Amino acid sequence: MAERRSVKDRLPTFPWDRLAPYKEKAAAHPGGIVDLSVGTPVDPVPASLRAALADAADSPGYPQTWGTPKLRASAAGWLERRHGVRVAEEAVLPAVGSKELVAWLPTLLGLGEGDTVVHPELAYPTYDIGARIAGATPVASDGLAALGPARAGLVWVNSPSNPTGRVLGVPHLRKVVEWARERGAVVASDECYLDLGWDGTEPVSILHPDVCGGSHENLLAVHSLSKRSNLAGYRAAFVAGDPALVSELLAVRKHAGMIVPAPVQAAMSAALDDDAHAAEQKERYRARRERLRAALEGAGWRIEHSEAGLYLWASHPGHDAWGAVSHLADRGVLVAPGEFYGPRGASHVRVAFTATDERVEAAAGRLAR
Ligand SMILES: Cc1ncc(COP(=O)(O)O)c(C=O)c1O
């Protein structure tokens, strides 16, 4: 009998397990660990969003896969108000957090063996995972020209980037769109940090008319409320863009039961209708970013990119990535080695500034010593 090959066998080992000994070391610090290794929100869910969730708690029936008309109107409204992007309400589809959509998009689009999924060289690992789940071939490449005639089914861009915080300008994004359109490839733009530009940086959506010339054909933008609205625990995201692609995704997701719970849809709608809580949260991150950046630079670290998002992309002349992780763990500070995001990260660490003010202050104090 032929042996079954599990999907798990196509996937790499979970890299975070390799960080465990450093986490233990950092936790042994007398002042306690400062965990800056993951970008998970630590501040409360805004009261208005909790109220919206609770008000929709009596939801005995199945929710709509497509999202309520109210949620789709809120998403379209936010895109237009905040990012100058106009989409029809039919061109919006909620997802159970954006990681779910990223991991399943190649499969949902019907990609598989013989298809290529291109993603940035330094990247959130789930683009690669999604290609592998589908049985497609992941290719890490920042230079599309270098791909030659390879048939790309899907090209991921991620601006602002995790892990580097780099923001791609309009000309760069426009070139990606043109390249993909010439080849019939879909461009998926992971824009979960779009609202988090610093020092005057204003990240632009792939769906903005300056980038795509007003046509969303073959384009998808993925948005998440995890970071903007402290909703990582709610699993709240959506995809918008090409109406034909969105309806294709909807058709498959309906059959597969990939549905956002109704109370979460209500909380998402409330979050997208309100900018005040997001501005308040952004100010918290701004202060933490400035504190950590100054402390790292004062201790001889170099920060590259990091003009947007929730991370500082840092390197130290005395250490490679794992050496830097170890050096900081000795001070009770846990960060992620750049290597987790691709071989080009071998001399960097990613420092998340998603810790409380108190923990950020503790880290800054330890760096100064
Ligand atoms: C680039 C990127 N995409 C997607 C996600 C997933 O976010 P969520 O599933 O919470 O929407 C993250 C989370 O850190 C991320 O950094």
Automatic annotation (TrEMBL):
Its cofactor is pyridoxal 5'-phosphate. Keywords: Aminotransferase, Transferase. Its EC number is 2.6.1.-. Signal peptide: none annotated. It holds the Pfam family Aminotran_1_2. It comes from the Bacteria. It is an enzyme of class 2 (transferase). CDD domains: AAT_like. One of its GO terms (molecular function) is transaminase activity. Belongs to the class-I pyridoxal-phosphate-dependent aminotransferase family. This is Aminotransferase. It comes from Nocardiopsis algeriensis.
